[in-house]
Design brief:
Elements lengths: L5 E5 L4 H14 L3 E7 H7 L7 E7 L1 H10 L9 E7 L5 E6 L1 H7 L7 H19 L2
Antiparallel strand pairs: 1-5, 2-3, 3-4, 4-5
Helix pairs in contact: 1-5, 3-5
Length: about 130
């Protein structure tokens, strides 16, 4: 787990392909996409420039609800999110919150260790699917 709770994976693909692969992986697993936030388009709308940056908000109430039952404040970090972005050097990356960090942040304890482990494995698999060659 990173100190800041973020896990970042470099992509072997360009921005659009990485984003598309992430969305396809979510669809394949029947995971609901609640929102897509195109930060670069928002910046453009107000006359600013931002490298490609899109936040995908997704989840499954069966997985997330146990965390919120343990501490309703966990809802600030749920549903799960993944940020696909291009850095200044042109490398595309995918970043997400480590579910273990979310659990620690909200002092969830052992009661949610299984759902947290499942979320962690799912996010790692989604990131791998979206970014690997």
């Amino acid at each position: 787990m990173a100190d800041d709770g973020l896990i970042t994976v470099p992509s072997a693909h360009d921005f659009e392909k990485t984003l598309g692969r992430l969305l396809a992986a979510l669809a394949e697993k029947s995971i609901t996409v609640f929102a897509r936030v195109d930060h670069a388009a928002g910046a453009k709308d107000v006359g600013l420039r931002l490298r490609p940056t899109t936040l995908v908000v997704f989840g499954n109430p069966v997985a997330g609800t146990p965390l919120m039952e343990a501490s309703q404040f966990a809802g600030i970090d749920l549903p799960l999110k993944a940020l696909v972005w291009e850095d200044a050097g042109g490398t595309v990356r995918l970043t997400y919150n480590d579910p273990h960090w979310i659990a620690a942040r909200h002092h969830l304890g052992d009661a949610v260790s299984k759902p947290v482990a499942a979320m962690s494995a799912l996010l790692a698999a989604l990131a791998q699917r979206a970014t690997s060659a």
